[in-house]
Amino acid sequence: KIANDIIKISTMKLSISLLAASLATTDAGVWGNLRRRLSYEKVATYSPGSQVTDHCAIDRDQRAVEVELARKTNESWQNAQQIYLQGGNSKSYALITLSEPLRSDVAKGTSVTGKNADGNEVAGKMYDTTSSGAVNVKVQYATTDVQDSYVQCQVGALVGEDINMSGCFADGENTINIGGEVYTYTYTAATENKNGRTIAGFSTQLEDKLKNGPGAPYADFEYFRKYYGTSDYADQWVNAAFEGGRTSFTNGNADFSQYGMEGREQIIKKGTAYMNVWMYTIREFEDALDDCKRGCINCNDDPVHAWDEGVCFYSGSLEGQDGAPSGYLLHQLADKRSLDFKTGGPDGTDVDGQSKLNYDLMDEFALGNYQLQSGNCPSARKTKERIAQLMYIPMIQGSIRYAHKVDKLQGGEKEKAEGAAFASAVLPRVHAANSDAAAKIYNNLRVGASSTNHQEVKAAFESVYSQLGLTCADIGGLWNEAEKSYYPGMGPCTDASTTKVVTETNSTLAIALGTTFGVLFALALIAVLYMRSREKKGAPVFKTEMVQNSAST
């Protein structure tokens, strides 16, 4: 396995090196567009091949939800739920009413211009293809390549200082140019600026995009759909927590009436990031592969864009270009859990800095990008499969950590809820590998569990690592930084496959040596018996000869 891992890493580095070399030497006419695409701002060290600043901004909705949840008032929780449902930061559009019907059909993407409250031009495009005669029109605001100023109309369900209307179309009655035709319109900026991309939508759209997608069935989505019995499991989980109700899944149910705001806050904010956003991240990678055209080097822009979107949903915008630990999505989670499990740094042995998981994933993201651009679709699919395997790591770490907190460190409602939230984000995958292991984890970490045995949870996860494509080193052990050691009984496990290889190697060596010495002993015994037989017959094998030397006189 170690040798295979070394070969894989070397192959990845070689592929990325070949990309750089090819860009430097290949005909400019072929690669010119590719060079331009590689000039976008980085996403947590990843170099996208398309503009995805608007997609990355979904983490700003997550932040806004968490801010409102933390206030712990009925009003703030209503705000948080509306931000979850309606968004505010991604795919902003204006819903305007024209004073006269459209004079002709207008295609999606047609240029639209108007002015803001200060009289400055605002650019946009038609959100949908809209038929002649329509009076209600959606106009999506233009976005830029610069993350800090990607769009200047952020309203949706946002509250307070998060609202930004400096780049929205002006209120009231004004004029707008749609594809060269001028119309008078009316709308209210505070209520009719909406968003087409929301965290809730990441779950509610899965039925159409994954269950019925062109490449269905999609393995990871199917684990969750079959386990929970529904495609929108994440949305149902989050809304039940908002309402203090209960879920009605096939497996993995939870009754959130047993928690107050302290516990439900953890369920919601972890559910939105690690269930809603997580699966939609996988969806974007699957979308890239569905559209990939094998062997075509100039026709995979759309797949690359979908791949870039997946990286954005994993990392978010607040991580910055260097991946500094300041985000709200999966990239940030990986870094946080690596501190708890001593899996930081490029080698996965540190307790500070970026997680090894994020180093590995950024390599995989870059490799997948290159494979798509070069039309190497089969290899890109293998890369996606490895990405999906790795992305379960912090969910497992979180489950083990909070099982230990509840069992050994007197964790209360908050810690119990965190354990339940992390488990819910990985149980379907464990269940597909071993239903008994999943049942043990669920019974120990479910909402309302009567008791929690952290060792049982740890052992259940460890029993399926190999089936999940993971190793003990990937997960690490629960680290006590104050004591500079692992918590008792919580150190890294030893992979069964590694132990087996060592045992088989030793056994093989012993057998080989035993056989060799046995054969040599048998030959020696035959030789001795043969010599004794010759001696008895008076014809020994070896004769002693007396050499008489004549004395010289």
Descriptive overview:
This protein is an alpha+beta fold. It has helices at residues 2-25, 28-37, 53-56, 58-71, 74-86, 201-204, 206-211, 219-228, 233-243, 261-291, 301-315, 330-341, 356-373, 377-390, 393-408, 413-424, 427-433, 435-445, 454-462, 472-475, 496-536; strands at 92-98, 111-115, 121-126, 136-141, 172-178, 181-187, 193-195, 479-480, 485-486. Strand 5 (172-178) and strand 6 (181-187) form a beta hairpin. The longest helix is centred in the C-terminal third of the chain and has 41 residues, at 496-536.
Topology overview:
Blueprint: H1 2-25, H2 28-37, H3 53-56, H4 58-71, H5 74-86, E1 92-98, E2 111-115, E3 121-126, E4 136-141, E5 172-178, E6 181-187, E7 193-195, H6 201-204, H7 206-211, H8 219-228, H9 233-243, H10 261-291, H11 301-315, H12 330-341, H13 356-373, H14 377-390, H15 393-408, H16 413-424, H17 427-433, H18 435-445, H19 454-462, H20 472-475, E8 479-480, E9 485-486, H21 496-536
Antiparallel strand pairs: 1-4, 1-6, 1-7, 2-3, 2-5, 3-4, 5-6, 8-9
Helix pairs in contact: 1-13, 4-5, 4-10, 8-17, 9-10, 10-11, 10-14, 10-16, 11-13, 12-15, 13-14, 15-16, 15-19, 17-18, 18-19
